[in-house]
Write a structure and sequence with these properties.
globular; single chain; six-stranded mixed beta sheet; about 250 residues; alpha/beta
Length: about 250
């Protein structure tokens, strides 16, 4: 590689080639690790292209990964533009996955992002088997549980009823709500999965993204919130005082 290329990735190389507090007990520094993540054989799936998903996609691309996939079922709404920095006003109405993939490919040379516009359940299990890791940035507990079910169902067992390591796909789950956030790594049948610790998630969601309400409402609650937030002000633009006078 050229000197310019080495300088671009010097910080990533330091993480991979030297021991440090960020590495787990099983981590072994090796100069070959950087070449490995730059290989087409290492495929990473990013689930969700919202506020957190845009950040994760950018970080993975700038960390040297060259073969990324992105799946999201939403289209871009005006309310997304204040925090989802991969989108612009001209992108409103377009699929988030497609626009995010185009943006990253333009800005990070050598990185290829394959977009998938649709639901998790639209993809067969064979689709998920190709990935070395799945990174999740969803805003729905139900979608997280579905993804957790997919990852757990892919695990195969040997004759001793032990999980075959190559069939275990790590799931990195992240989420934000207000000033709170979390990040955890799930290795099926080695660590507690998302279903095992479902009580850690709030049972009631405080509000819904406007892009979901406007373009892909999929729950009765979405329809109610759409009527309350978007339709009601159009029907009664001056509030309850108008209703009283009538």
């Amino acid at each position: 590689s050229s000197p310019g290329t080495d300088n671009r990735w010097r910080h990533v190389r330091r993480l991979l080639e030297r021991a440090g507090p960020l590495g787990g007990p099983e981590f072994e520094p090796d100069p070959e690790l950087f070449s490995a993540i730059r290989s087409d054989l290492v495929q990473i799936l990013v689930v969700g292209a919202g506020g957190l998903g845009c950040e994760m996609l950018k970080d993975l691309a700038l960390s040297g990964f060259v073969n990324l996939h992105l799946i999201d079922m939403d289209t871009i709404d005006l309310s997304n533009l204040n925090r989802q920095f991969l989108f612009r006003p001209k992108d409103i109405g377009r699929p988030k996955a497609v626009v995010a993939a185009e943006f990253v490919e333009r800005r990070v040379s050598g990185c290829r992002v394959t977009p998938h516009f649709g639901k998790l359940e639209d993809k067969p299990l064979e689709f998920y088997k190709q990935f070395m890791c799945i990174v999740c940035g969803l805003d729905s507990v139900q979608a997280r549980r579905r993804l957790n079910q997919i990852v757990c169902s892919l695990v195969q067992f040997d004759e001793s009823d032990q999980p075959i390591p190559t069939s275990v796909i790590p799931l990195i789950d992240g989420g934000t709500q207000g000033f709170q956030g979390h990040c955890r790594v799930v290795r099926a049948h080695a660590t507690p999965c998302l279903e095992c610790t479902a009580d850690l998630y709030s049972s009631t969601q405080q509000g819904f993204p406007l892009c979901t309400l406007a373009h892909t409402p999929r729950l009765p609650e979405h329809c109610i919130e759409f009527a309350r937030i978007m339709q009601w002000p159009q029907e009664w633009p001056f509030g309850e005082e108008v209703m009283k006078t009538e």
